[in-house]
Amino acid sequence: MNKIILYELNEVSWQVVNFYLSKRKDTYLEQLIKSSHKFTSMTYDSGELHPWSTWPTVHRGVSNDLHNIRFINQDLSYSNQYPPIWEILNKNKKTSGIFGSLQSGLPKDNQHMLFHIPDTFAKDYNTFPEKYKIFQKINLKQTNKNKAISSRVTIFDFIEAIPLISNGLSFQTIFKIINHLVIEKINPYNKSLRPTLQAHLSFDVFKSCLNNHKPDFISFFTNHVAGIMHRYWKFSFPNEFNYKLSDSKKDQFHKNSIIKAMDIADKHIGFLIKFSKKYNYDLVVCSSMGQEAIDRGDYQAEIQINNFRKLKESLDYNSNIKINMAMQPDIAFEFENKEDLNYFLKKITLIKTKDDKQIFYTDYKPIGLTLNIKSIKSNSLEQDQIAIYNSKEFPLNFFGIQTFKRDIGTGYHKPEGIIIWQNNKKYSKKKINKVDSRRIAPTILKNFKLNIPEYMQKPLPIDI
Fold first, then answer.
1. How far is residue 362 from each of residues 82, 85, 332, 345, 369, measured CA to CA in Å?
2. pTM confidence score
3. DSSP run (H or E) holding 395
4. φ and ψ at residue 117, rounded to 5 degrees
């Protein structure tokens, strides 16, 4: 029985892996693939695919039709019937360490959970051990600032980050961050890659966790490649859009954006290969789904709340309400009782465009006292800046909302992902296609010689 590291490389498919290996030689990723079991995973989640649903499917071994985790910061207590893999391990006295895994919730008091840094959308910055609160506070702040577009970095951000040295921040990463901000001045297109800096910072802190604790099961989640793919897929795979790259600075810069993001992942993998060999871990690199080309047509301006106080006042809403973090165009709310939730939902969905379309709408039913709202895209709203409420016209800023534009997305979710599983046993040289992503969790349980719940799939065909 080996211990296991699960490196969660969000939304990366074999197409991206092969593209990267065609552009970079002698990579750690190639080294890993040559000595590992290889699978194309498939998620069978229903509805529109989202990582905050497909990762719980991996962790819990059941699809979203059973675990019913549909949106960020929803009440997870309604999914307790299908616990995540680390809770099953902890219950059986196996230790775990979780770093950033989506929908991992807030830290719980458990002697077998050696570290837990929740995901980048967490409701608060609590961590275990508490020393990593310093990191999580900055992590959540940067995620909130970079919801849809890269935000400005100030001297106060640097001052706030100095204590992170106690959390593992390396001088190498400090240099990378400073260097990146300098080259942004030389070539402003580099600003689009600023969100990838969080991956350097997070992995430094993760390494600190590993140096202090070496649990039986470890997970680390990174979204930095997925974010770049969403925006700049077209420039790496122009043929999928019948597009020919021009000599423009934008085209020539972004044709390498996915490669640069994958370079960061490759360095992570290099460290983990050495760590896993030294401390007898299986190393598993996987994604819960992938991305592919998407043609969104003409770009429509997007909507976001920029003054929550104004929104509440305009709706005549006076009760307590919490707005949690989510990913554009989603907005996550939390209430103290059902009456407040229903009242707010009724009111906010009355805000409409001139042609009677709801500006805010729901795709999912509320879970407990948590509510997910989506905002529409509309060029007409951007042009006239007028909304209708109770048959009267109001400027958008009356509601504390605004329109904005960003790079049009050219990559979006598809069911196929990757599983690369390295252990010290015999492995198949061939890649096995279309294995159910729900089979990862029971394979982990099998590795630790634990009973597999009846609701789970059979394990992957791996000798463990």
1. 25, 30, 11, 9, 15
2. 0.95
3. strand 392-395
4. -110, 110
Helix or strand holding residue 53 (H, E)? helix 51-60
Q: Which helix (H) or strand (E) holds 456?
A: none
The rounded distance, in Å, linking the Cα atoms of 8 and 419 is 10
| Spatial distance between the Cα atoms of 277 and 291, rounded to a whole number of angstroms | 31
Token code pair at residue 316: 């005549």
pLDDT in tens, 42-90: 999 999 999 999 999 999 999 999 999 999 999 999 999 999 999 999 9
CB burial class (10 A; 0-12, 13-18, 19+) of residue 276?
buried
How far is it, in rounded angstroms, from Cα 355 to Cα 388? 9
Residue 416 CA to residue 232 CA, distance in Å, equals 19
Range list of H helices, 96-154: 133-145
Q: Can you read off the two tokens belonging to residue 447?
A: 């590795």
**Chain centre to alpha carbon of residue 152:** 22
- Tell me which residue has tokens 């909130």: 144
> What is the pairing mode between strands 290-293 and 431-436?
unpaired
Domain ranges of the chain: 3-295+412-447, 302-404
Beta-bridged to residue 40, according to DSSP, are 418
User: What are the distances in angstroms from CA 117 to CA 137, 140, 282?
Assistant: 11, 11, 22
The label of the residue with tokens 């690199």 reads: 285
Which fold, 3-295+412-447? Alkaline Phosphatase, subunit A (3.40.720)
